[in-house]
Amino acid sequence: MGVSGLRVSEIGLGTARWGQSTTREDATELLGIFLKSGGTLVDSSPAYGAGAAQALLAEVLHTTGIPREEILLSSSAGVDPHSPVGRRVDCSRRSLIAQLDSTLRALDTDHLDLWSVGYWDEKTPPAEVADTLDWAVRTGRARYAGVRDYGGWQLAVTQSLAGGRIVATQHEYSLLVRGIEEELLPAATHLGVGVIAAASLARGVLAGRYRTDVPRSARAEVHALLGTKSDTVVDAVATAAHGLGLPPAVVALAWARDRVGVASTVVGASTPAQLTELLNAADTHLPRAITKALDDVSR
After folding, report:
1. d(CA 172, CA 180)
2. Is 202 left (phi over 0), alpha (psi -120 to 50) or beta?
3. Cα separation of 158 and 217, whole Å?
């Protein structure tokens, strides 16, 4: 992960839908498949399903008896999407520490392997955020510190105040959402911070899930990604996948994973079959010509 000593799997397991559309039985099987394949990084957050995801993760870990040292638990704090508008982001020392302690209790563990501030808070001084991250590591509650959804300058400011303590930054990144290339990726590379790419399948759009039909139940984020440009990119991914004999999802994931500065990509597979398919990306390296063609068509 960047220039730190933290070693993570190139593909991480997301738990955003656990406790909602993902049942305990599926979650148990997903985690088993993931660990058997050599995966280590498990992404969580108290914001996922208002805590339901972490509760289910804790239950699965307890019932399966998976040794704690086999998993790199990553979580965040500072964001509550269920709070009233204007109060959803609170990265004050008080709020961050309270959420961290709550997460440790929920997951029944004494530490997180990676703990991140979930969003840039304009109302909290960056020095206070940096000091809280440093405190979490010094007290052993977290092994490493990170940030999520930060811009490049925000990462640079916080990293400077934290004395280089930040080792990871997590942000949405895919063939359809490439905004972090302008500032965040170069900043992270310069600062020695590893990038965790989230939503690299663009919420299923790049897997071709919505090529012919978009159900009304699809989330707003999906509808926001659809359009003429997305159709062109999705068609290019499908063409490349056909030529390589691979599923489109594997092609899209391999593209994101191999970008300079990206240390890991988090996938939120909803079924064991989907996860098994995506894990094949670990052994897939796209030919340079195809990578360039996808680069060009998605700019």
Report:
1. 8
2. left
3. 39
Q: Given this model, what pLDDT does residue 203 score?
A: 85
The token pair that represents 46 in the structure block: 């108290």
| AA letter at 150 | Y
Vertex 135: Cα angle to 132 and 140 (nearest 5): 135
* Chain position carrying tokens 């709020």: 95
Domain 11-298 has CATH 2.102.10.10: no
pLDDT in tens, 50-67: 899 999 999 999 999 999
d(CA 270, CA 140): 33
Domains in the chain: boundaries: 11-298
- List, for residues 125-147, the tens digit of each pLDDT value: 999 999 999 999 999 999 999 99
Tokens of 219: 């989330």
Beta-ladder partners of 264? 196
> How many other C-beta atoms can be found within 10 angstroms of the C-beta atom of residue 216?
5
* Token output for 51: 């805590």
- The answer to whether the predicted template modeling score (pTM) of the entire model surpasses 0.90 is yes
Of 176, 162, 266, 188, the residue nearest 223 (C-alpha): 176
Q: What is the 3-state secondary structure (H, E, C) of the chain?
A: CCCCCCCCCCEEEECCCECCCECHHHHHHHHHHHHHCCCCEEECCCCHHHHHHHHHHHHHHHHHCCCHHHCEEEEEECECCCCCCCCCECCCHHHHHHHHHHHHHHHCCCCEEEEEECCCCCCCCHHHHHHHHHHHHHCCCEEEEEEECCCHHHHHHHHHHCCCCEEEEEEECCCCCCHHHCCHHHHHHHHCCEEEEECCCCCCCCCCCCCCCCCCCCCHHHHHHCCHHHHHHHHHHHHHHHHHCCCHHHHHHHHHHCCCCEEEEEECCCCHHHHHHHHHHHHCCCCHHHHHHHHHHHC
First to last CA, the chain: 27
Residue 205 CA to residue 71 CA, distance in Å, equals 29
